[in-house]
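Dear Dr. H.,

I hope your travels went smoothly. While you were away I took the liberty of generating a structure for the chain from your last submission, since the lab meeting agenda had it listed for discussion. I wanted you to have the full record in hand beforehand rather than looking at slides cold. The sequence, exactly as received, is reproduced here:
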Amino acid sequence: MFTYSHAITQKKTQIIKICSQCQLINMLTNTIIFTDQVTLKYKNINLYADKILVSHAKDIHHLSAIEAHGKPAILNQTQEDMKNSIFAQSLIIYYSTNDDTITFIGNAYIEQSGNSIKSDKIVYSIKKKQMKAISNQGNKVITTLLTNQSKKYI
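The corresponding predicted structure, in token form, is as follows:
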């Protein structure tokens, strides 16, 4: 089953395409819950999860949040250059359109161009192009950076 939802960003309509086995619409809270093998496509983001909640502001055409739950939930974001695509996964992925941030909670992992970061929680600000990784007590943030070292022979 395909469901379409609209989001208005910068006076431009964006389409969210969601495929799931089941959906529940709550018109009082302006939320839609999709369950069972859910896939979501929004802009250049593909999201795969067990359950996805889509929330709209009071104006039904204004998307306010997307929340994905999975074991893990997976996010793929293609970049314009197609070389620096982002792969991310965590137990919960929360995208807020109000401040344009994506929060990964629970076994969070993000990889791009061979570089990766693993933490209990990662907050990524799309507008600011900033990332903050936070780990619970006793755990560490683990970052792997790929360096390009060329050897010169004499």
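Two observations you may find useful: Residues 93 and 104 are 5 Å apart (CA to CA). DSSP finds no helices and eleven strands in the chain.

With kind regards,
E. W.
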